[in-house]
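As the work plan foresaw, the team has encoded backbone shapes as discrete tokens. One protein thus recorded appears below exactly as we store it.

:::
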Amino acid sequence: MGITYQPLAALTAFFSFSEGFRAPTPAELTCADPDAPCRLPNAFVADPPLDPVIARTYEFGVRGKLPLGDELLWSLALFRTDLADDIMFIVAETGGAGFFQNIARHGVRASRSACRADGSGSDTF
């Protein structure tokens, strides 16, 4: 879902939100018991309770045109992805074995920018 706003002919602001879902893999489900850590690969057994991973991404940016030469196109965006119930491999105290478990929350923050002169291709920074 997203919105855009164009306050000037050569400037556009935008915002978007998206949500993703990832179910645990068979390997993660099979090896998710802290009382019975395993070495991977492992034979698959009953499904322990691992929650799916949920990702929520927010992005805000601006893009526009500058009247330099033929035309210079530019953009700048900032985004953040928050993960809930991500699945991590935890090494058991005995070493050499471990198990998968959900972790509460963590996230990623980043930015991207691009500049392109009309007809020259795109460079991203």
Observations:
- The chain has one helix and six strands.
- The helical segments are 26-30.
- The first helix runs from residue 26 to 30.
